[in-house]
What does this fold into?
Amino acid sequence: MVNKKAISPLIATLLLIAFTVALGVMIMNFGKNLLNDYGGCDSIDIAIDEIQNSLCYKEESSEIAFTIINKGKTEVSSLTFQTINTQLTGQDRFKEFNLPNSKIAPGAYHVGTHPYIKPEGFVIKFIPKITFNNGEQICPDQAIEINSLTEDVPACP
It folds into this structure.
């Protein structure tokens, strides 16, 4: 009789389970990184374009004009225009409008105007929305905020 040594079935089973768990962790981390790069609010980066008059107020038509660029990796499906009048209280203080045709591909611009009566104290927000997991997700943490106490919205030429 030849004396052969081998791994016991119990140790072989434990090694297979450990290998499977390690492989699963690697795949989950890869998927999580891929999701952060190409989905979810973390991959959004919108900004007012840095050219002159990319955010200005048209006094003759009482409109705000803006140019927004998508510097992120995810397409913005739409923008919400929110105004907060700091001089008012209650329901009249907040107004929110969905901007039509405001889809912005990565690296693209959205040029638009919106009716707006410029009060003394105001906050304007452009809030992005994305399509994610077959639904629309609002991304308030990636919003652009303009506060009249710290920034001035100049008159358009």
In short: The mean pLDDT is 85. The first strand starts at residue 46 and ends at 48.
